[in-house]
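Intended use. Records like the one below are meant for learning the mapping from a protein sequence to its folded structure. Do not use them to infer anything beyond what is encoded.
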Amino acid sequence: GETGEQPVLARAGTFEFHMRPSGGDLDVAARFARLALDEELTGGNALPPLDGLADLTIARGVDEPLDAAGLRGRSVEIRTITLSFDGKPVATLSGPATVDVQGFIDAELNVTLHDAEGLASVMATLLPEVRHEIELSLSSLASGSEAPTLPLRIVGGEMRLGFLYLGSIPPM
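Structure written out for the chain above:
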């Protein structure tokens, strides 16, 4: 029968979340370990547990507190988001992002690759239809630098890492 319960889309071994006002803006910091995403979120693909750190500012987050619309109509400055798999950092993101009133994301981010092969493996699992392009692109980019930085552009939810199309993010 129908229980009316919402499905659990993610579980974390640990999760910390901190907020503090910064003028009219809201600084947000989060840390999580052993985050497991439900396969409903990953297109039926199993991913290794994810660890991460996030440090960002939500513009006007104090002056206009978040409501049921969440981040819609907001801009966010991502100082850093670091993602790690198996305790090993794979990528760090930073830069500005906005969410329009329909929930679509626009962002101009920089992604620094700490483990291009590890990131390629995870992205290829999430996006099997472009597995070959991901593996070729990230391995060739990583060969020239210790920790290359690439532009990640998101326009109307459509993602491109450098010249590589990654797919789209549904509205928030």
